[in-house]
Design goal:
Layout (H helix, E strand, L loop, with lengths): L2 E5 L3 H12 L3 E6 L11 E4 L1 H9 L3 H5 L3 E2 L2 E6 L5 E6 L11 E4 H14 L3 E4 L3 E7 L2 E6 L4 E4 L1 E4 L7 H5 L7 E12 L15 E6 L3 E7 L5 E7 L12 H12 L6 H6 L8 E5 L7 E2 L2 E3 L2 H4 L8 H15 L8 H35 L4 H14 L6 H4 L1 E2 L9 E2 L1
Parallel strand pairs: 1-2, 1-12, 2-8, 5-14, 12-19
Antiparallel strand pairs: 3-7, 4-7, 5-6, 9-10, 10-11, 13-16, 13-17, 14-15, 15-16, 18-19, 20-21
Helix pairs in contact: 1-4, 1-9, 2-9, 9-10, 10-11
The protein binds flavin-adenine dinucleotide (FAD).
Protein backbone atom coordinates (compact mmCIF):
# COMPACT_ATOMS: atom_id res chain seq x y z
CA UNK A 1 0.00 0.00 0.00
CA UNK A 2 1.35 3.41 -1.01
CA UNK A 3 1.09 6.40 1.28
CA UNK A 4 -0.17 9.21 -0.97
CA UNK A 5 -0.16 12.91 -0.13
CA UNK A 6 -2.76 14.76 -2.20
CA UNK A 7 -2.27 18.53 -2.29
CA UNK A 8 -5.52 20.48 -2.75
CA UNK A 9 -9.11 19.57 -1.86
CA UNK A 10 -10.84 20.80 -5.04
CA UNK A 11 -12.65 18.43 -7.37
CA UNK A 12 -9.38 16.96 -8.70
CA UNK A 13 -7.91 16.36 -5.23
CA UNK A 14 -10.99 14.75 -3.72
CA UNK A 15 -11.65 12.60 -6.80
CA UNK A 16 -8.01 11.49 -6.79
CA UNK A 17 -8.06 10.57 -3.11
CA UNK A 18 -11.14 8.41 -3.75
CA UNK A 19 -9.48 6.79 -6.76
CA UNK A 20 -6.22 6.10 -4.92
CA UNK A 21 -8.17 4.45 -2.15
CA UNK A 22 -10.00 2.29 -4.71
CA UNK A 23 -6.55 1.34 -6.05
CA UNK A 24 -5.70 -0.01 -2.59
CA UNK A 25 -3.60 2.89 -1.32
CA UNK A 26 -3.78 5.28 1.60
CA UNK A 27 -4.49 8.92 0.71
CA UNK A 28 -4.55 12.06 2.85
CA UNK A 29 -5.62 15.41 1.40
CA UNK A 30 -3.87 18.65 2.40
CA UNK A 31 -5.72 21.91 1.70
CA UNK A 32 -4.29 25.43 1.95
CA UNK A 33 -7.55 27.03 3.13
CA UNK A 34 -8.23 26.73 6.82
CA UNK A 35 -11.87 25.66 6.33
CA UNK A 36 -13.85 23.65 3.75
CA UNK A 37 -15.04 25.68 0.75
CA UNK A 38 -18.77 24.93 1.18
CA UNK A 39 -20.91 27.56 -0.51
CA UNK A 40 -17.95 29.01 -2.43
CA UNK A 41 -17.89 29.42 -6.22
CA UNK A 42 -20.38 29.46 -9.03
CA UNK A 43 -21.77 26.60 -11.04
CA UNK A 44 -20.39 24.14 -13.54
CA UNK A 45 -21.54 21.30 -15.72
CA UNK A 46 -20.41 17.70 -15.39
CA UNK A 47 -20.55 16.19 -18.88
CA UNK A 48 -21.32 12.54 -19.62
CA UNK A 49 -17.62 11.64 -19.79
CA UNK A 50 -17.32 13.00 -16.25
CA UNK A 51 -20.27 10.85 -15.17
CA UNK A 52 -18.68 7.83 -16.81
CA UNK A 53 -15.54 8.41 -14.70
CA UNK A 54 -17.69 9.01 -11.58
CA UNK A 55 -19.28 5.62 -12.19
CA UNK A 56 -15.88 3.98 -11.80
CA UNK A 57 -15.50 5.74 -8.46
CA UNK A 58 -19.01 4.53 -7.50
CA UNK A 59 -20.18 8.12 -7.23
CA UNK A 60 -22.33 8.47 -10.34
CA UNK A 61 -25.65 7.99 -8.51
CA UNK A 62 -24.71 10.53 -5.85
CA UNK A 63 -23.71 13.09 -8.50
CA UNK A 64 -26.82 12.40 -10.58
CA UNK A 65 -28.86 13.73 -7.64
CA UNK A 66 -27.13 17.10 -7.81
CA UNK A 67 -28.25 20.11 -9.81
CA UNK A 68 -30.39 19.47 -12.87
CA UNK A 69 -30.16 17.81 -16.24
CA UNK A 70 -28.88 20.06 -19.07
CA UNK A 71 -28.71 17.82 -22.12
CA UNK A 72 -29.17 20.53 -24.74
CA UNK A 73 -27.88 23.93 -25.71
CA UNK A 74 -29.02 26.44 -28.30
CA UNK A 75 -27.09 29.37 -29.74
CA UNK A 76 -28.65 32.76 -30.59
CA UNK A 77 -27.61 36.16 -31.87
CA UNK A 78 -28.45 38.88 -29.37
CA UNK A 79 -28.84 41.64 -31.95
CA UNK A 80 -31.74 39.98 -33.76
CA UNK A 81 -32.71 37.21 -31.34
CA UNK A 82 -32.10 34.87 -34.31
CA UNK A 83 -31.59 31.20 -33.55
CA UNK A 84 -28.26 29.85 -34.87
CA UNK A 85 -27.99 26.18 -33.98
CA UNK A 86 -28.90 23.51 -31.39
CA UNK A 87 -26.35 21.11 -29.86
CA UNK A 88 -26.60 18.05 -27.67
CA UNK A 89 -24.41 18.38 -24.59
CA UNK A 90 -22.79 15.00 -25.22
CA UNK A 91 -25.93 12.83 -25.39
CA UNK A 92 -26.42 10.33 -22.59
CA UNK A 93 -24.86 7.26 -21.00
CA UNK A 94 -26.60 3.92 -21.66
CA UNK A 95 -28.59 4.34 -18.41
CA UNK A 96 -29.89 7.74 -19.57
CA UNK A 97 -27.58 9.93 -17.47
CA UNK A 98 -27.04 13.28 -19.20
CA UNK A 99 -24.86 16.31 -18.53
CA UNK A 100 -25.94 18.07 -15.32
CA UNK A 101 -25.42 21.61 -14.17
CA UNK A 102 -24.78 22.05 -10.46
CA UNK A 103 -23.05 24.43 -8.09
CA UNK A 104 -19.36 23.71 -7.59
CA UNK A 105 -20.14 23.63 -3.90
CA UNK A 106 -22.68 20.78 -4.29
CA UNK A 107 -20.19 18.67 -6.26
CA UNK A 108 -17.44 19.47 -3.78
CA UNK A 109 -19.76 18.53 -0.89
CA UNK A 110 -20.59 15.19 -2.52
CA UNK A 111 -16.89 14.33 -2.90
CA UNK A 112 -16.10 15.48 0.62
CA UNK A 113 -18.87 13.34 2.09
CA UNK A 114 -17.67 10.33 0.08
CA UNK A 115 -14.13 10.92 1.32
CA UNK A 116 -15.37 11.11 4.89
CA UNK A 117 -17.39 7.84 4.56
CA UNK A 118 -14.38 6.13 3.05
CA UNK A 119 -12.11 7.25 5.89
CA UNK A 120 -10.04 9.69 3.81
CA UNK A 121 -8.67 12.48 6.01
CA UNK A 122 -8.58 16.10 4.84
CA UNK A 123 -6.24 18.46 6.69
CA UNK A 124 -6.94 22.18 6.38
CA UNK A 125 -4.54 25.10 6.73
CA UNK A 126 -1.82 23.08 4.97
CA UNK A 127 -0.39 25.18 2.15
CA UNK A 128 2.31 23.29 0.27
CA UNK A 129 5.56 25.26 0.35
CA UNK A 130 8.04 22.73 -1.00
CA UNK A 131 8.85 19.04 -1.22
CA UNK A 132 11.90 17.08 -0.08
CA UNK A 133 12.79 14.03 -2.11
CA UNK A 134 14.82 11.13 -0.76
CA UNK A 135 15.47 7.56 -1.94
CA UNK A 136 12.97 6.22 0.59
CA UNK A 137 10.12 8.66 -0.09
CA UNK A 138 8.94 12.24 -0.33
CA UNK A 139 8.10 14.85 2.27
CA UNK A 140 5.59 17.65 1.70
CA UNK A 141 6.56 20.76 3.65
CA UNK A 142 3.78 23.22 4.48
CA UNK A 143 3.83 26.98 5.00
CA UNK A 144 2.92 26.53 8.69
CA UNK A 145 6.22 24.70 9.23
CA UNK A 146 4.69 21.22 9.52
CA UNK A 147 5.40 18.38 7.10
CA UNK A 148 4.08 14.99 6.06
CA UNK A 149 5.99 12.05 4.64
CA UNK A 150 4.85 9.48 2.08
CA UNK A 151 5.61 7.64 -1.14
CA UNK A 152 3.91 9.98 -3.60
CA UNK A 153 2.87 13.64 -3.78
CA UNK A 154 -0.09 14.44 -6.06
CA UNK A 155 -0.47 18.12 -7.00
CA UNK A 156 -4.21 18.78 -7.28
CA UNK A 157 -3.57 22.39 -6.37
CA UNK A 158 -5.16 24.13 -9.32
CA UNK A 159 -4.14 26.67 -11.93
CA UNK A 160 -1.49 28.31 -9.75
CA UNK A 161 -0.06 25.01 -8.53
CA UNK A 162 2.85 25.14 -6.10
CA UNK A 163 3.92 21.62 -7.08
CA UNK A 164 4.15 22.34 -10.84
CA UNK A 165 7.36 24.45 -10.66
CA UNK A 166 8.84 21.94 -8.22
CA UNK A 167 8.37 19.26 -10.88
CA UNK A 168 9.77 21.51 -13.60
CA UNK A 169 10.89 25.11 -12.93
CA UNK A 170 10.63 25.87 -16.66
CA UNK A 171 6.85 25.27 -16.70
CA UNK A 172 5.15 28.21 -18.43
CA UNK A 173 2.60 30.49 -16.75
CA UNK A 174 -1.14 30.11 -17.44
CA UNK A 175 -2.37 31.78 -20.65
CA UNK A 176 -4.83 34.65 -20.23
CA UNK A 177 -8.17 34.48 -22.06
CA UNK A 178 -9.49 38.04 -22.44
CA UNK A 179 -12.93 37.19 -21.12
CA UNK A 180 -14.31 37.77 -17.65
CA UNK A 181 -16.64 35.36 -15.95
CA UNK A 182 -19.62 36.24 -13.80
CA UNK A 183 -23.09 34.86 -13.20
CA UNK A 184 -25.83 34.16 -10.73
CA UNK A 185 -28.99 32.26 -9.88
CA UNK A 186 -32.40 33.96 -9.70
CA UNK A 187 -34.65 32.39 -7.05
CA UNK A 188 -37.94 31.15 -8.44
CA UNK A 189 -39.84 33.70 -6.33
CA UNK A 190 -37.90 36.53 -7.98
CA UNK A 191 -38.19 35.33 -11.58
CA UNK A 192 -40.19 38.01 -13.39
CA UNK A 193 -43.61 36.81 -14.51
CA UNK A 194 -44.03 36.01 -18.18
CA UNK A 195 -40.30 35.70 -18.90
CA UNK A 196 -40.29 34.52 -22.52
CA UNK A 197 -38.39 31.74 -24.10
CA UNK A 198 -36.77 29.83 -21.19
CA UNK A 199 -37.14 26.07 -21.57
CA UNK A 200 -36.14 23.92 -18.55
CA UNK A 201 -32.81 22.13 -19.02
CA UNK A 202 -31.84 23.91 -22.25
CA UNK A 203 -28.84 26.22 -22.09
CA UNK A 204 -29.56 29.33 -24.12
CA UNK A 205 -26.23 30.72 -25.28
CA UNK A 206 -26.32 34.22 -26.74
CA UNK A 207 -23.71 36.10 -28.76
CA UNK A 208 -24.90 39.47 -27.54
CA UNK A 209 -23.92 42.73 -29.16
CA UNK A 210 -21.46 43.48 -26.39
CA UNK A 211 -21.17 40.30 -24.35
CA UNK A 212 -21.60 36.54 -24.58
CA UNK A 213 -23.99 35.02 -22.04
CA UNK A 214 -26.04 31.95 -21.22
CA UNK A 215 -29.22 31.38 -19.21
CA UNK A 216 -31.28 28.33 -18.36
CA UNK A 217 -34.14 27.38 -16.07
CA UNK A 218 -34.08 24.51 -13.57
CA UNK A 219 -37.11 22.33 -12.72
CA UNK A 220 -37.78 24.48 -9.64
CA UNK A 221 -38.15 27.54 -11.86
CA UNK A 222 -34.88 29.21 -10.88
CA UNK A 223 -32.86 30.90 -13.64
CA UNK A 224 -29.12 30.12 -13.73
CA UNK A 225 -26.95 32.38 -15.88
CA UNK A 226 -23.39 33.31 -16.64
CA UNK A 227 -21.86 36.05 -18.75
CA UNK A 228 -18.44 36.51 -20.33
CA UNK A 229 -17.80 40.25 -20.80
CA UNK A 230 -14.67 41.15 -22.70
CA UNK A 231 -11.76 41.95 -20.38
CA UNK A 232 -10.66 45.56 -20.97
CA UNK A 233 -7.55 47.11 -19.43
CA UNK A 234 -9.49 50.35 -18.91
CA UNK A 235 -12.05 48.68 -16.60
CA UNK A 236 -11.90 46.91 -13.25
CA UNK A 237 -15.36 45.34 -12.86
CA UNK A 238 -14.14 43.20 -9.94
CA UNK A 239 -13.85 46.40 -7.91
CA UNK A 240 -17.52 47.37 -8.43
CA UNK A 241 -19.97 46.92 -5.59
CA UNK A 242 -23.03 44.75 -6.20
CA UNK A 243 -25.38 47.42 -7.49
CA UNK A 244 -22.70 48.97 -9.75
CA UNK A 245 -21.87 45.48 -11.02
CA UNK A 246 -25.53 44.92 -11.83
CA UNK A 247 -25.77 48.27 -13.65
CA UNK A 248 -22.56 47.55 -15.63
CA UNK A 249 -23.81 44.12 -16.75
CA UNK A 250 -27.30 45.33 -17.52
CA UNK A 251 -26.02 48.02 -19.90
CA UNK A 252 -23.83 45.41 -21.63
CA UNK A 253 -26.90 43.35 -22.58
CA UNK A 254 -29.48 46.13 -22.80
CA UNK A 255 -29.47 46.37 -26.61
CA UNK A 256 -30.13 42.66 -27.14
CA UNK A 257 -33.46 41.08 -28.05
CA UNK A 258 -33.35 38.61 -25.15
CA UNK A 259 -34.64 38.67 -21.55
CA UNK A 260 -31.09 38.92 -20.15
CA UNK A 261 -31.35 42.47 -18.79
CA UNK A 262 -34.48 41.44 -16.86
CA UNK A 263 -32.73 38.34 -15.53
CA UNK A 264 -29.71 40.32 -14.33
CA UNK A 265 -31.96 42.90 -12.68
CA UNK A 266 -33.75 40.12 -10.78
CA UNK A 267 -30.50 38.54 -9.47
CA UNK A 268 -29.67 39.01 -5.81
CA UNK A 269 -26.07 37.77 -5.68
CA UNK A 270 -24.03 38.38 -8.81
CA UNK A 271 -20.63 36.67 -8.73
CA UNK A 272 -17.71 39.10 -8.70
CA UNK A 273 -16.30 39.05 -12.27
CA UNK A 274 -12.98 37.28 -12.50
CA UNK A 275 -10.43 36.71 -15.24
CA UNK A 276 -10.13 33.39 -17.05
CA UNK A 277 -7.05 31.47 -18.14
CA UNK A 278 -6.12 28.15 -19.57
CA UNK A 279 -3.01 26.00 -19.48
CA UNK A 280 -2.15 24.52 -22.86
CA UNK A 281 0.92 22.40 -22.28
CA UNK A 282 3.67 21.94 -19.75
CA UNK A 283 6.90 20.01 -20.28
CA UNK A 284 6.12 17.27 -17.79
CA UNK A 285 3.24 16.27 -15.55
CA UNK A 286 5.49 14.17 -13.32
CA UNK A 287 9.01 13.73 -12.04
CA UNK A 288 10.20 11.04 -9.64
CA UNK A 289 7.40 10.50 -7.13
CA UNK A 290 5.62 13.80 -7.86
CA UNK A 291 2.66 14.14 -10.24
CA UNK A 292 -0.05 16.62 -11.28
CA UNK A 293 -3.80 16.18 -11.84
CA UNK A 294 -6.66 18.49 -12.86
CA UNK A 295 -6.15 22.19 -13.51
CA UNK A 296 -2.59 22.00 -12.15
CA UNK A 297 -1.66 19.94 -15.22
CA UNK A 298 -3.97 21.22 -17.97
CA UNK A 299 -6.60 23.85 -17.17
CA UNK A 300 -9.13 24.34 -19.96
CA UNK A 301 -11.11 27.49 -20.65
CA UNK A 302 -14.53 27.45 -18.94
CA UNK A 303 -15.85 27.49 -22.53
CA UNK A 304 -14.88 23.81 -22.83
CA UNK A 305 -17.38 22.84 -20.11
CA UNK A 306 -14.87 20.09 -19.28
CA UNK A 307 -12.73 21.23 -16.32
CA UNK A 308 -14.44 19.14 -13.65
CA UNK A 309 -15.02 16.19 -15.97
CA UNK A 310 -11.36 16.10 -17.02
CA UNK A 311 -10.23 16.34 -13.39
CA UNK A 312 -12.37 13.29 -12.53
CA UNK A 313 -11.01 11.41 -15.55
CA UNK A 314 -7.43 12.21 -14.41
CA UNK A 315 -8.24 10.86 -10.97
CA UNK A 316 -9.50 7.56 -12.38
CA UNK A 317 -6.57 7.22 -14.80
CA UNK A 318 -4.01 7.92 -12.07
CA UNK A 319 -5.61 5.46 -9.64
CA UNK A 320 -5.71 2.83 -12.34
CA UNK A 321 -2.03 3.33 -13.24
CA UNK A 322 -1.05 2.94 -9.59
CA UNK A 323 -3.19 -0.15 -8.86
CA UNK A 324 -1.38 -2.68 -6.70
CA UNK A 325 2.13 -1.32 -7.26
CA UNK A 326 5.00 -0.92 -4.81
CA UNK A 327 6.97 2.33 -4.25
CA UNK A 328 9.74 1.28 -6.64
CA UNK A 329 7.24 1.16 -9.52
CA UNK A 330 5.82 4.67 -9.00
CA UNK A 331 7.87 6.50 -11.69
CA UNK A 332 6.87 3.96 -14.35
CA UNK A 333 3.20 4.15 -13.33
CA UNK A 334 3.30 7.97 -13.48
CA UNK A 335 4.77 7.79 -17.01
CA UNK A 336 1.91 5.54 -18.08
CA UNK A 337 -0.60 7.94 -16.53
CA UNK A 338 0.85 10.96 -18.32
CA UNK A 339 1.08 9.08 -21.60
CA UNK A 340 -2.57 8.11 -21.33
CA UNK A 341 -3.86 11.55 -20.39
CA UNK A 342 -1.66 14.24 -21.96
CA UNK A 343 -2.82 14.23 -25.55
CA UNK A 344 -6.52 14.07 -24.64
CA UNK A 345 -6.19 16.82 -22.03
CA UNK A 346 -4.27 19.12 -24.38
CA UNK A 347 -6.83 18.54 -27.15
CA UNK A 348 -9.64 19.51 -24.76
CA UNK A 349 -7.73 22.69 -23.77
CA UNK A 350 -7.39 23.68 -27.44
CA UNK A 351 -11.05 22.85 -28.06
CA UNK A 352 -12.01 25.12 -25.15
CA UNK A 353 -9.82 27.85 -26.62
CA UNK A 354 -11.62 27.52 -29.96
CA UNK A 355 -15.01 27.62 -28.21
CA UNK A 356 -13.98 30.88 -26.51
CA UNK A 357 -12.75 32.52 -29.74
CA UNK A 358 -16.13 33.53 -31.25
CA UNK A 359 -17.11 35.07 -27.93
CA UNK A 360 -14.11 37.37 -28.22
CA UNK A 361 -14.30 37.99 -31.97
CA UNK A 362 -18.01 38.72 -31.77
CA UNK A 363 -17.32 41.56 -29.38
CA UNK A 364 -14.31 43.02 -31.17
CA UNK A 365 -15.87 43.03 -34.61
CA UNK A 366 -19.47 43.73 -33.86
CA UNK A 367 -20.13 45.12 -37.32
CA UNK A 368 -19.37 41.71 -38.81
CA UNK A 369 -20.86 39.74 -35.95
CA UNK A 370 -23.92 38.40 -37.74
CA UNK A 371 -22.03 37.44 -40.88
CA UNK A 372 -19.12 35.80 -39.06
CA UNK A 373 -21.20 33.88 -36.57
CA UNK A 374 -23.77 32.72 -39.10
CA UNK A 375 -20.96 31.40 -41.30
CA UNK A 376 -19.28 29.66 -38.35
CA UNK A 377 -22.49 28.00 -37.23
CA UNK A 378 -23.62 27.09 -40.75
CA UNK A 379 -20.35 25.22 -41.11
CA UNK A 380 -20.78 23.62 -37.68
CA UNK A 381 -24.32 22.57 -38.57
CA UNK A 382 -22.97 20.68 -41.55
CA UNK A 383 -20.89 18.56 -39.24
CA UNK A 384 -22.68 15.95 -37.17
CA UNK A 385 -22.88 15.73 -33.42
CA UNK A 386 -20.56 12.72 -33.77
CA UNK A 387 -17.69 15.17 -34.20
CA UNK A 388 -17.75 15.72 -30.46
CA UNK A 389 -17.73 12.04 -29.61
CA UNK A 390 -13.99 12.19 -28.90
CA UNK A 391 -14.80 14.57 -26.02
CA UNK A 392 -17.89 12.93 -24.56
CA UNK A 393 -17.64 9.20 -25.37
CA UNK A 394 -14.52 8.56 -23.35
CA UNK A 395 -14.37 5.57 -21.08
CA UNK A 396 -11.54 4.54 -18.77
CA UNK A 397 -11.77 0.84 -18.12
CA UNK A 398 -10.49 0.35 -14.59
CA UNK A 399 -9.95 -3.37 -15.06
CA UNK A 400 -8.23 -3.24 -18.43
CA UNK A 401 -4.47 -3.26 -18.72
CA UNK A 402 -4.49 -0.90 -21.65
CA UNK A 403 -5.49 2.72 -22.08
CA UNK A 404 -8.89 4.37 -22.28
CA UNK A 405 -11.14 3.89 -25.28
CA UNK A 406 -14.18 5.50 -26.83
CA UNK A 407 -17.46 4.21 -25.46
C1 LIG B 1 -16.17 30.11 -14.31
C2 LIG B 1 -15.83 28.69 -14.42
C3 LIG B 1 -16.74 27.86 -15.02
C4 LIG B 1 -16.44 26.52 -15.15
N1 LIG B 1 -17.34 25.73 -15.78
C5 LIG B 1 -17.08 24.43 -15.88
C6 LIG B 1 -18.00 23.56 -16.52
O1 LIG B 1 -19.03 23.98 -17.05
N2 LIG B 1 -17.75 22.25 -16.53
C7 LIG B 1 -16.63 21.76 -15.97
O2 LIG B 1 -16.44 20.54 -16.01
N3 LIG B 1 -15.69 22.56 -15.37
C8 LIG B 1 -15.89 23.88 -15.31
N4 LIG B 1 -14.97 24.68 -14.71
C9 LIG B 1 -13.67 24.16 -14.23
C10 LIG B 1 -13.70 23.37 -12.93
O3 LIG B 1 -14.30 24.05 -11.86
C11 LIG B 1 -12.26 23.00 -12.56
O4 LIG B 1 -11.54 22.87 -13.75
C12 LIG B 1 -12.28 21.69 -11.87
O5 LIG B 1 -13.07 21.80 -10.72
C13 LIG B 1 -10.88 21.14 -11.50
O6 LIG B 1 -10.30 21.92 -10.52
P1 LIG B 1 -9.08 21.45 -9.62
O7 LIG B 1 -9.54 20.62 -8.46
O8 LIG B 1 -8.00 20.91 -10.49
O9 LIG B 1 -8.55 22.85 -9.09
P2 LIG B 1 -9.25 23.85 -8.06
O10 LIG B 1 -10.71 23.78 -8.11
O11 LIG B 1 -8.61 25.18 -8.32
O12 LIG B 1 -8.78 23.29 -6.64
C14 LIG B 1 -7.44 23.43 -6.18
C15 LIG B 1 -7.43 23.31 -4.67
O13 LIG B 1 -6.07 23.34 -4.24
C16 LIG B 1 -5.94 24.25 -3.17
N5 LIG B 1 -4.55 24.75 -3.20
C17 LIG B 1 -4.01 25.62 -4.06
N6 LIG B 1 -2.70 25.80 -3.78
C18 LIG B 1 -2.42 25.01 -2.73
C19 LIG B 1 -1.23 24.75 -1.99
N7 LIG B 1 -0.04 25.35 -2.27
N8 LIG B 1 -1.29 23.87 -0.96
C20 LIG B 1 -2.45 23.24 -0.64
N9 LIG B 1 -3.62 23.46 -1.32
C21 LIG B 1 -3.58 24.33 -2.35
C22 LIG B 1 -6.98 25.32 -3.46
O14 LIG B 1 -7.30 26.04 -2.30
C23 LIG B 1 -8.13 24.46 -3.98
O15 LIG B 1 -8.94 23.98 -2.95
C24 LIG B 1 -15.21 26.02 -14.63
C25 LIG B 1 -14.29 26.87 -14.02
C26 LIG B 1 -14.57 28.20 -13.94
C27 LIG B 1 -13.56 29.11 -13.33
Amino acid sequence: MLKCLVIGSGIAGLATANSLQKAGHHATVFEAYSVPSDGVGGFLTVAVNGFDALDTLELKEAAANLGFSTPQMSMYLGSSGKHLIDFDYGGSLPDGTTARTMTRSELYGMFREAASHRGIRIEYGKQLATVKEAPDGVTAVFADGTSAGGDLVVGADGLHSALRPLIDPSSPAPRNIPLLNTGGIVDSGLVPAGLPDVEPGRMKMVFGKRCFYCYMQDPEGRIWWFANPLQRSSEDPAALDHSARKAWLTQLVAGDRTPMATIITATDGIIRPYTTSDFPSIPSWHRGNLVLVGDAAHAASPSSGQGASMAIEDAVALGRSLRGISPADIPGALSRYEKERRSRAESVVEWGRRNAAPKIRGQFKRVFEDLVLKAVFRSLARKTADNFDWVYRHHIDWDAAETARAR
